[in-house]
Design goal:
By secondary structure, the protein is mainly alpha-helical. It has one domain. 67% of the residues lie in helices and 0% in strands. α1 packs across α15, α1 packs parallel to α16 and α11 packs antiparallel against α13. The longest helix is centred in the last third of the chain and has 33 residues. The two termini are 27 Å apart.
Length: 406
């Protein structure tokens, strides 16, 4: 087994779609660069915000927060897909087991999350000197995914957990929503999500940002999940789970990703982000070059570790930056930022890989009441499955779909 396969995401024999993890890699790297630049800007010196080049680089990296809604759209696709395949797929048979669905969410995602909250709480006490009694209510609210609503603010324990609370809300309603959509006629099944996305875009463009509690909830972000659910419908019913690829869709990739990157600076594009993400994801599945790049083994592996990277990257950036930033600040904004990126991003990925092996991968393998899990790299022994040194192909599946979202 290749050493890279030691870090591959584990499935329970379900279909593995490498391009999904490739897209996860894009999303998590954008979030990492966003927080790295934000830390650098607030802690560093020698930055002249009036300099056009420096300001341009700052704005570009600061746009990396679009990675979170990109994750939301991927969650819509991932969680809706097994239900669409059960209803319309090539091997449509018995409905998805809801008990197994909810148990999987709980046993797969909750233990690594609680470990992260415990580590973060200890660090806040030891490093920042915050009293444990002050942190415990925030820990409790974060642990049960209600901090956004109780405090109308992101988690004091781990600020990035705000998006995980929204994800959990979607996990709860996704089966009901998908079952309802499946019961509709094909035209209505696609028209209703599109109309809802359009209505939410119009509302936000007219009334501006939602109140804090609404913005930090599923209703305040629903358009992104709906875009992903729409993609799941197209993937199964139109593409028959085997999308054809062409260079024309690579041209779409080249056009749509700059629009996504620049969207936070342009209100019209910012409101249209769900539709831009949907277009980019279609192009990822359908473009020859795009698909090839996104399914390269290192890209897929980084994307497969995105949950751990998301939970810990902020702390790793802060820890490394305490030592690295003072040594480069005198060089000025651009040279120092470049060095920080070259130093910190690899450390985040390597440290994240270690934490992934320690705290996340064991719970990918742990399947209460189910058969043993297999790594996607092990699927090379299955018909049609293979893993190369530079590219991962789809592993054959017969027992259902198992993909988790961040």
């Amino acid at each position: 087994m290749s050493w890279l396969q030691q870090f591959q995401r584990v499935t329970s024999g379900g279909r593995f779609i490498p391009v999904v993890d490739g897209l996860r890699c894009v999303a998590i790297l954008s979030v990492i660069l966003y927080h790295l630049e934000d830390y650098f800007t607030h802690k560093g010196t020698g930055w002249n915000p009036l300099d056009p080049i420096e300001s341009g680089v700052h704005r570009l990296l600061h746009n990396g927060h679009v990675g979170v809604p990109l994750f939301f759209a991927l969650s819509g696709f991932i969680l809706a897909l097994p239900f669409y395949e059960s209803a319309f797929g090539k091997t449509a048979s018995k409905p998805t087991n809801l008990r197994r669905y909810y148990l999987r969410r709980l046993t797969r995602l909750e233990p690594p999350y609680l470990i992260n909250l415990a580590i973060a709480t200890v660090l806040l006490c030891a490093v920042n000197g915050i009293a444990m009694a002050e942190l415990l209510p925030h820990f409790a609210a974060s642990a049960v995914y209600v901090h956004n609503q109780v405090y109308a603010a992101v988690s004091t324990i781990n600020p990035v957990a705000w998006s995980l609370e929204i994800e959990v809300q979607f996990y709860l309603v996704a089966p009901l929503l998908t079952h309802w959509l499946i019961s509709l006629r094909p035209i209505a099944r696609r028209a209703i999500p599109l109309a809802t996305i359009a209505a939410l875009i119009v509302c936000k463009s007219i009334w501006g940002p939602w109140p804090t509690r609404l913005a930090l909830s599923l209703p305040g972000t629903a358009e992104h999940f709906l875009a992903g659910m729409l993609l799941a419908d197209v993937y199964v019913t139109s593409w028959k789970s085997t999308p054809l690829r062409s260079l024309r869709w690579d041209a779409v990739t080249a056009a749509v990703w700059p629009a996504i990157i620049l969207s936070p600076q342009i209100p019209l594009l910012a409101h249209a982000l769900p539709l831009l993400a949907l277009t980019a994801y279609v192009a990822a599945f359908r473009g020859r070059i795009t698909h090839d790049l996104l399914t390269r083994a290192p890209i897929v592996i980084i994307g497969g570790m995105c949950y751990t990277l998301y939970l810990y990257h902020f702390f790793i950036i802060s820890f490394v930056g305490r030592f690295s930033l003072p040594r480069t600040a005198h060089l000025g904004y651009l040279p120092s930022l470049l060095i920080q990126c070259l130093v910190i991003v690899p450390v985040v990925i390597v440290a994240g890989a270690v934490l992934y092996r320690l705290f996340e991968r064991p719970f990918m393998i742990w399947r209460p009441g189910q058969t043993a899990a297999v790594a996607p790299g092990d699927a090379a022994s299955q018909p049609g499955g293979s893993v190369g040194n530079s590219k991962v192909s789809i592993a054959a599946a017969t027992t259902g779909l198992d993909m988790e979202a961040v």
